Amino acid sequence: MSLDTPRIGVRPERLTAHEARQRLEHERNSRLTQLRAVGEARQGAEEMMSAQKDTIERVLKEIEAAFTRVEDGSYGICLGCSTPIPVERLEILPYTRFCVPCQLTAA
């Protein structure tokens, strides 16, 4: 083998500056993509947690209002049509303010 014969299959000991930049750019882009994905996932989780918190707080207010209706004697009476709310509905949703037909029109 002479010095003029190319060495096939032997890797150079060092990367060229161009190769190094390409690899580093690829790695940087990969990490930035991962970072964005983590940020979006975290943001999505925070939004979901915030939405769940809002729902829980809303239901707690409904429950407190139902306690007030129990105290004043209006519990179980539909706020829409003033008819009694069926017991089955109150068993499923004890803090409801409406019968099913009025709930559908209120929504």
Write a short abstract of this structure.
With 107 residues, this protein is mostly helical. The chain is 64% helix and 0% strand.
Structure write-up:
With 107 residues, this protein is an all-alpha fold. The chain has three helices and no strands. The protein has helices at residues 17-72, 87-92, 100-106. It is rod-shaped. The mean pLDDT is 82.
Question: How many E-type strands?
Answer: 0
Secondary-structure element series: HHH
What is the makeup of the main sheet? none
Q: Helix segment count?
A: 3
Percentage of residues in DSSP E strands: under 5%
What is the radius of gyration computed over CA atoms, rounded to a whole number of angstroms?
33 Å
Query: How helical, in percent, are the residues?
Result: 55-70%
Q: List the uncertain runs.
A: none
Mean pLDDT: 82
Q: CA-to-CA gap between the ends?
A: 86 Å
Coarse shape: rod-shaped
Structural class: mainly alpha
